[in-house]
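Sequence design from tokenized structure. All designs in this work follow the same two-part layout: the structure record, then the generated sequence. An example of the structure record is given first.
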């Protein structure tokens, strides 16, 4: 009686390689394909829910953002550098969203929730540990959505959905220019050229998302 024919070991190797390729593609795909945006973002539904023109809502914008956590554990460490003249803030916010009328049309630092359209997660801050100014300023194309959109955050601050394949650090020159403008503006809040920040819960109570800087640890007794 003839024995059973053994399977070619190359078959197992091919299956193993195929499995490895599938697993790798699963984890790598969000970096190249907007998986989250295709599966979970419906601009038509968002526009209808918040009464915003869909054409304006789904138009991607060039944005500059600043990494500026308010303290340890800040869930919203990014600020949108808004300047109406440079179109860093989508026009529809001023024309159709009453909640943003208080922003006016001048330079402003707007704290936002940021997620990437590839995996739906906030940008990694692993590359923001060197202390260099260039690490703090980032840019890319994205969409600024109404507070509470996509179930992100606590509904107090608008959501920036960023195209993952455009998200990158600013070059040294741009970072230095932005940093200089922001710092000089914050030092002189009464200057017409200065940046105003919406972090103050007294000035912008509708933006208060409940975050408070943790108190310093008690000093150890000598």
């Amino acid at each position: 009686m003839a024995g059973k024919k053994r399977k070619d070991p190359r078959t197992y190797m091919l299956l193993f390689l195929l499995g490895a390729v599938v697993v790798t593609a699963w984890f790598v795909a969000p970096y190249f394909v907007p998986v989250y945006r295709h599966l979970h973002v419906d601009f038509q539904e968002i526009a209808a829910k918040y009464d915003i023109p869909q054409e304006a809502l789904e138009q991607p914008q060039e944005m500059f953002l600043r990494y500026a956590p308010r303290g340890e554990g800040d869930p919203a460490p990014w600020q949108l550098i808004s300047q109406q003249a440079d179109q860093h803030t989508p026009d529809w916010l001023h024309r159709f969203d009453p909640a943003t009328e208080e922003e006016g049309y001048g330079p402003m630092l707007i704290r936002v929730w940021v997620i990437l359209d590839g995996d739906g997660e906030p940008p990694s801050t692993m590359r923001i540990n060197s202390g260099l100014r260039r690490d703090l300023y980032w840019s890319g194309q994205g969409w600024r959505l109404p507070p509470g959109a996509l179930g992100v955050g606590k509904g107090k601050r608008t959501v920036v959905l960023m195209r993952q394949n455009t998200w990158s650090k600013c070059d040294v020159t741009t970072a230095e220019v932005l940093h200089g403008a922001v710092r000089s503006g914050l030092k002189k809040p009464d200057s017409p050229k200065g940046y105003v920040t919406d972090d103050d819960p007294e000035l912008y109570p509708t933006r208060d998302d409940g975050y408070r800087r943790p108190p310093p640890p008690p000093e150890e007794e000598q």
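The helical segments are 9-28, 35-40, 43-50, 54-57, 92-96, 172-187. We note this feature because it recurs in several other targets discussed in the main text.
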